[in-house]
Amino acid sequence: MSPPIAEIELDEQARRALIRDVLERIGDKWSVVVICQLGDGTRRFNELSRLSEPITKRMLSATLQGLERDGLVSRTVHATKPPRVDYALTPRGASLLQIVRDLAGWAEENAAGIVEARASFDAK
Amino acid sequence: MSPPIAEIELDEQARRALIRDVLERIGDKWSVVVICQLGDGTRRFNELSRLSEPITKRMLSATLQGLERDGLVSRTVHATKPPRVDYALTPRGASLLQIVRDLAGWAEENAAGIVEARASFDAK
DNA sequence: CAGAATCCGGGTGGATACTG
DNA sequence: CAGTATCCACCCGGATTCTG
Asked: How far apart are the first and last CA of chain A?
């Protein structure tokens, strides 16, 4: 017995809602940049701050917390003086790295064409 | 002669700004869903509307216009009665399809783990 | 060094109603 | 069928200031 149409569609919607929910994390303004930077290895807070310019500390902090909450990034505090905090990709974060790099690569390759397409579209 | 540091960093920032600018289109709420649907072939407006539930017509229209502006989707109007409009991926849109599918696949595979990670993170 | 707290303007996107 | 128009609540993200 197959479930009624309505039920299938509800499941489909719930599934897509979940996917969109997950993708919204990497859809925000800075996650892709930070993930790419961490793809090269462990980094400290101010190091990431410089590498990800012109991000602000507030947004870097928020981005890292979001990524940590989703289990994509690990945060390690060293009780030294001055304090030192290391960020790195978790295995799950690393599993996303290649896709994110592909995305960034695609964006770079197509940037010029897209800028041109926008200009031509806006001309009408 | 290599350019001064400041100049290199400005170029790097400009390059990243461009990439982020391009990625913001697919970072919005509905583009990934719509691109995935169009990945299966040409679709009409109301067809996309149903397939992408619970999107509203307003957001579907806005999403399609954004994708068309960037040259990722083509729009073809048939002067029939009632009117009929076909949407399809352009070659550039198709070049993005595999990455978007990878992204959606990753999101689906990791959704459960991420929900769990969030719950455990929020417990603190 | 590594953040947190506060303020706030602009834009995203939902609901609803209307149109050719 | 394929949209547009209007209104508006929400929240993202920048600037600034403060802290252990």
From this structure: 53
Kindly determine whether residue A122 and residue B69, on different chains, have CB atoms separated by under 8 Å.
Answer: yes
State which residue has its Cα closest to the C1' atom of C14.
Answer: B56
Token couple for A26: 């990497």
Is A106 an interface residue toward B (CB < 8 Å)? yes
Tell me the pTM.
0.92
| pLDDT tens digits, one per residue of B5-64 | 556 666 788 899 999 999 999 999 999 999 999 999 999 999 999 999 999 999 999 999
The answer to whether A50 and A8 are in contact (CB under 8 A) is no
DSSP A6: H
- Measured to protein CB atoms, the chain D nucleotides within 7 Å are 1-6, 12-17, 20
Q: Which helix (DSSP H) or strand (DSSP E) does residue A77 occupy?
A: strand A73-78
